[in-house]
């Protein structure tokens, strides 16, 4: 899943990108976006690997896209900069915790940029549909264009009120109709406050949490610098700063789950692997993440949840205690399921 790391210039986006991915920012790719692929840490996968001792252990990965910073005052080029992440599945909005200004105002202004960028796309399409309406065409095509125009007018109304396209409460068929527009205000969002060491241990402002309840904060630059020190020096500095550990792994996990993703596992002597699927996916859709043939030929899935497996210690004991079960095509995958797919 691709996630756009975005924010205003000077917010520390590229520092956060380097902290999370381990890749230094490349100025040559600054205007087009730079991609990094960090693994999502998962203690469950570590446990399974220690038990099965496979030839290979594979964690699921995210695709993080570092995007150009937006101009805080000159809006003209911002839609182009935002367009780089229209094909992303979600947004990680970086706020500047160094500047001392209102984080809530910064987030509000950034969300306004998303609204303006989406409104431009929607209104351009509405205008085009108006021109098409003047031409003679088959009844079915005309009705489809009229329905699309009505839908987009509804979405535009929400954007103009500053509510985002999600406020239109789109039905699945309506989401499908406008999917090609890749509206930014329909994407899941996680807010991350990039802080300095003076903010360590201090809570985020209640004002910000009211508009971004899942917001995170970490001293990304500090953790990067600490990682470069010798182990002894690092321990001394961390004690002085009252740091008990690094927050990168926890942050990567929270980013992953904030994007409406979950994980299931496949296990065996050859490989133990974590697979990412959208929350609410069926067992065949999960199988499709492994290989499209498994989805098309899906018969059933043998499933045991990780917690049950760990409690009983083996597949044999899981079966004995009745927590290893067969599921059909309508089964909704749960985070932490261990699955074996049976197919024709």
What this model shows, in words?
The chain has 14 helices and twelve strands. It has 344 residues and is of the alpha/beta class. Helix 1 (13-21) crosses helix 8 (220-227) and helix 4 packs antiparallel against helix 5. The longest helix is centred in the middle third of the chain and has 30 residues, at 103-132. The two termini are 29 Å apart. The model has no long low-confidence stretch (mean pLDDT 94).
Intertermini distance? 29 Å
In the sheet with the most strands, the strands line up as 2-4-1-5-6-7
Report low-confidence residues grouped into runs of 5 or more: none
The ordered string of helix (H) and strand (E) elements is EHEHEEHEHHHEHEHHHEEHHEHHEE
Name of the CATH architecture of the domain at 280-343: Roll
* Strand coverage percent: 15-25%
CATH superfamily of the domain at 280-343: Beta-grasp domain
Radius of gyration: 23 Å
The biggest sheet, with number of strands, parallel, antiparallel or mixed sense and barrel status, is: 6 strands, mixed
